[in-house]
Amino acid sequence: MDKPRIKVDFNELLDKDLVFLSKTDTREDSDGNVVILSEGLHVSLYEHNEYSDGEIEYLYAEGVVVPNVIQENPIAIWCCKINEKGITVVNE
């Protein structure tokens, strides 16, 4: 089975390899399917941005779902620990 592909905001990094994922136990993937989040679930992350100058930026990463234990009163209960490949950026 392929990894769920989930849209994130890479501006919400808690650390260089940790990004907010969800405030609830579910997220919708890029195909509109409901994904039940659980610790250790492998996921693909993406963000697509189009800027006013016409530049298009694609960001991708892969990682595993982890609980948000960094914040005392978390705004998101789930995060994604990005793997050693980091975030890939492609500009067009």
Mean pLDDT: 93
The total domain count is 1
Major beta sheet, specifics?
A: 7 strands, mixed
What is the number of strand segments? 9
Structural class, from helix and strand content? mainly beta
Determine Rg (CA atoms, Å): 13 Å
The first-to-last residue Cα distance is 30 Å
Ranges where pLDDT stays below 50 over 5 or more residues in a row are none
General shape: globular
Task: Give the percentage of residues in beta strands.
Answer: over 45%
Q: SSE order in H/E notation?
A: EEEEEEEEE
Helical residue percent band: under 10%
Secondary structure tally, helices: 0
What does this structure look like?
It is a single chain. By secondary structure, the chain is mainly β. It has one domain (5-91). 0% of the residues lie in helices and 51% in strands. It contains no helices and 9 strands. Strands 1, 2, 3, 6, 7, 8 and 9 form a 7-stranded mixed sheet that branches. Strands 4-5 form a two-stranded antiparallel sheet. Strand 6 and strand 7 (56-67) form a beta hairpin. The radius of gyration is 13 Å and the shape is globular. The termini are far apart. The model has no long low-confidence stretch (mean pLDDT 93).
Q: What is the topology?
A:
Elements: E1 5-7, E2 13-15, E3 18-22, E4 26-28, E5 34-36, E6 42-50, E7 56-67, E8 78-82, E9 88-91
Which terms would index this structure?
single chain, 92 residues, mainly beta, globular
Summarize this, please?
With 92 residues, the chain is mainly β. It has one domain.
